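Appendix B, Record 12. Input sequence as logged:
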Amino acid sequence: MLTLKGKHSKVYVENGKAIKVFKPQFRYNFWKEVRYLTVLQSQKFVPRLYDFEPSELTIEMEFIDGILIRDFVKEGGGEELRKILHRCLDICYRLDRMRIQKEEMNHPGKHILIRDGKVYFIDFERSFDSPNPSNVTQFVTYLCSKQIMEKAEISKPPIELLKEYKRYYSFKSYLNLKKAIFG
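Logged structural output:
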């Protein structure tokens, strides 16, 4: 059995399932993780939720045996990397439209997994509802690191496009932003 440790929980992996066990003082984080995994099940970019047990503070979910985005960026480049980053940005836009602030999108190294060309977002325990989410703008900050810009052959967007996006969250402003980044 594989065991992974985090700040708020431990994850035990067995038979394709991950059992996330929260520390007692993080009961609120447990409920947030359950809530957002439940809300996002139909979106197909989160692990499948199988069960949860409030009295034990455990969540049973699909184990995503994938590569962390930070490692994917180190190992890859070019068109494949561009495709994955493009998909990540689309997921961030979907979260923004749902008014869910994921957090950690400016440093998503351990919060995005890639498996068989598919992108999965994990760890929603710090998420919250927000009238002004910033998943897209946080992820754009991540994209603008020198390493990623060079490896994925992308451009830094003008600040005006980010401001326009944050003002309206419209599909048109999102497309303009994406075009400035990916060409």
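The chain has a mean pLDDT of 95.
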